[in-house]
Amino acid sequence: MADHGHNGPLPLTYYPAFCHKVSPTFFAWVKIAAIDMHHLKLRPGFEGQNIYFYLNHPIQFICAAGIIVARDEQERRSILVLDDSSGACLEVVCSKNVQVPNTNATTTTNNSMNSNNHDSNTSPPEPTHLASATHRPLNITPLLPGARAKLKGTISCFRGVLQLHLERYEILHDTNAEVRFWDERTRFRLQVLSVPWVVARGEVEKLRAEAEGVAVGGAASHKDGDRDLNADGHVVARRRKAERGREREKERARRREEREERDRLRIEKRYEKEEVVREKLARRCREKSALVRRDGKRGKRLRQVDV
């Protein structure tokens, strides 16, 4: 059931989780300013899912860009501070790849490094951090104070402060790239984030039916050992959406053909009526022409008699 709430002057409807897949923000890297990110809110019923809301837009992935003004190294994580010129700064957290040291392996590695010191000097540094969601190795060596970068990640909260948990990044080499990002961010805020998300009642019911069907199908496929369908049913939802799109296209083509056929019949009937009218006019013209010719011959004979 949709949850109706109020955030400021706008009445907002918070839709169930099965509606989030049609949201323009849920599966997107949401370009957002630091000052706006600090206004994201949690909603009852979504605790522990790392889903935050701007108005009633569900957001789980964010993208920010700016200049790194500080970097703090801790035992298990690195904390960056990003200034995106929005009036607030954003903390960026990147977890370190903490491994248990192996004494034998360390000794062997040290001996090898001593014997091949010139090779180790030329090799690139090993990634020492992990991405937030995929946990793949991540090298954040270029992310030093003064660097200009575009950062993407998930949302985390520490002591009431929202943070970006780094997933990937891109170095911006000039101010023009940062300004282009500002333009995209502003456009997205005006066109998407500032407008309440609305889903039609019929669409909500369709999504509910799909979610219930996917849940039943997922349980059956799990019993049969079929792993093709993921837990959330996104694969089936995409297939059904594509099928509905093809059906709608066929329906539009059928209606277009019917409309063209009706227009053709209407034009033919109009042409037939006009043809009947033209035939009547032509017949009248022929009759009048015959009368004129007959009267002309009669007048000629009378003139000859008078002479």
From TrEMBL:
Quote the subcellular location field of this record: Chromosome, Telomere
Q: Sorted alphabetically, which InterPro entries does this protein's record hold?
A: NA-bd_OB-fold, Stn1_N
SUPFAM superfamilies per record: Nucleic acid-binding proteins (SSF50249)
Q: Where is this region: Disordered?
A: 101-132, 216-262, 286-307
Has UniProt tagged this entry with the keyword Oxidoreductase? Answer: no
Where is the sequence biased in composition, kind Low complexity?
Answer: 102-123
List residues of the CST complex subunit Stn1 N-terminal domain.
Answer: 49-99
Q: Where is the composition biased (Basic and acidic residues)?
A: 221-231, 244-262
Basic residues compositional bias, start-end:
295-307
Where's it mainly located? nucleus
GO CC list:
chromosome, telomeric region
Q: Which domain of life is it from?
A: Eukaryota
**Which key words tag this protein in UniProt?**
Chromosome, Telomere
Q: Does the keyword Calcium apply?
A: no
Q: What is this protein called?
A: CST complex subunit Stn1 N-terminal domain-containing protein
Source organism (scientific name): Blastomyces parvus
